[in-house]
Write a structure and sequence with these properties.
This protein is mainly α. It contains 17 helices and 3 strands. It is 75% helix and 5% strand.
């Protein structure tokens, strides 16, 4: 669940943070671990409930355009001025104008972004702040662009893989509703004229068909009310936590979820390390990206690293590695290139996740079609079963 936190930052300024946690207490604890004094915690509203004011700032596009301008040799202020001058969207123009005003007042780029946490997340601000210390802002922007592009590609693969089963399920529900609401009542009229005793299952099916035909509005209202009740139930933090824990206990799915979250963690830590951020700080910053099941293990890993235990050994001890990840982490410790090794770990597991998802969808599609075919076939058989029995009696 997403929370918006109003807190006093290490520099003394009042900041707004956006964090993901199981409940408000955990969100407050995450903010305190990052050095903030929490003033208030509130649940973040969903994107479709925020209206136009909650429009997302195009962070990837902004980074790409800013990098192109900086590589042409102009300063940061001139680059922001150029982006603001060409921007036609009022909300985006307002953000760029606010950054420009703070830069003219002598603030750093990271400081200006830190005042707008709704548009610039903590990881992005930390990356910009680290690049300001080393004077390699273009390189940091390039790393973020590569990082975000890879995440978007993985998200697109997972989304496209889920479209076909959802479409198949939706069409199947419409076909079943058509059979129950239109075809079944027609057969009911025929059987009423013929008379006689119907099989029990056929009678239940016909009664449902009559109900849908006669009380269509009521049935639609009940269906919508049920969907809304399920949605509100899943929106409860305790229910979502239990549902997530149930998924994690499934043999194959639980392991896939663990690898997915670890891959996202590795990729983010790699970006931060290559931007000059220390390993302990980077691990603390990615805590909110992990599932609630893995966060205690990450906290223990951070404690072990502070006690002098090597990163690979600490992460392996608390279940934050895979066989491939462990080997590459050890190579990174030997070569001193941990950022690149973590990037390779993430790329390997992202490809593995994409292949597994594609295979699961290919298997799930035929299985879903088989189940839907059996359901529709059962409806048809139950409709014609009284006719079969009548034919046997006549014979």
């Amino acid at each position: 669940m997403h929370f918006r936190i109003k807190a006093i930052g290490p520099s003394g300024s009042v900041d707004m943070l956006a964090l993901e946690a199981r409940d408000a207490n955990e969100a407050a604890q995450l903010a305190r671990k990052q050095g903030y004094a929490v003033l208030s915690v509130g649940a973040a509203r969903l994107a479709f409930m925020r209206g136009s004011r909650g429009a997302r700032f195009p962070l990837l596009l902004f980074s790409q355009e800013l990098l192109a301008l900086l590589e042409s040799g102009i300063s940061v202020v001139e680059a922001i001025e150029t982006l603001a001058a060409k921007e036609a969207r009022p909300a985006v123009h307002h953000v760029l104008d606010s950054i420009l005003n703070r830069l003219r007042e002598g603030s750093t780029l990271s400081g200006a972004m830190a005042e707008m946490p709704a548009h610039f997340n903590e990881l992005y601000i930390a990356m910009i702040r680290a690049s300001e210390k080393t004077s390699d802002l273009p390189a940091s922007l390039g790393r973020f662009i590569a990082y975000q592009t890879q995440l978007d590609e993985l998200r697109a693969k997972l989304t496209s893989a889920a479209i076909y089963p959802l479409l198949l399920l939706g069409v199947s529900v419409l076909v079943i509703l058509f059979l129950l609401g239109f075809v079944v009542p027609r057969f009911a009229g025929i059987y009423d004229d013929i008379g006689g005793e119907l099989p029990w299952l056929s009678r239940v099916l016909i009664d449902w068909g009559k109900f849908l035909e006669q009380e269509g509005l009521l049935a639609t209202a009940l269906l919508l009310a049920g969907a809304m009740a399920v949605y509100r139930l899943l929106a409860q933090p305790a229910v979502r936590v239990r549902f997530g824990e149930a998924l994690w206990r499934l043999p194959r799915i639980g392991e896939r979820l663990r690898i997915f979250y670890l891959s996202r963690c590795y990729r983010t830590v790699a970006m931060l390390l290559r931007g000059g951020i220390p390993i302990v700080t980077a691990l603390q910053m990615v805590e909110g990206l992990l599932a609630a099941t893995l966060r205690p293990q990450l906290a223990k890993t951070i404690t072990a690293i502070r006690e002098g235990i090597p990163l690979s050994q600490a992460m392996d001890r608390y279940g934050l590695t895979t066989p491939v990840a462990l080997r590459l982490l050890r190579v990174g410790e030997q070569t001193g290139n941990m950022g690149e090794m973590m990037e390779r770990i993430a790329a390997f597991h992202d490809e593995e996740t994409a292949r597994w998802t594609e295979m699961a969808v290919r298997l799930f599609g035929p299985v879903l079609m088989l189940l839907i075919g059996l359901l529709i076939g059962t409806i048809v058989v139950l409709l014609y079963l009284p006719i079969f029995q009548l034919a046997e009696n006549i014979g």
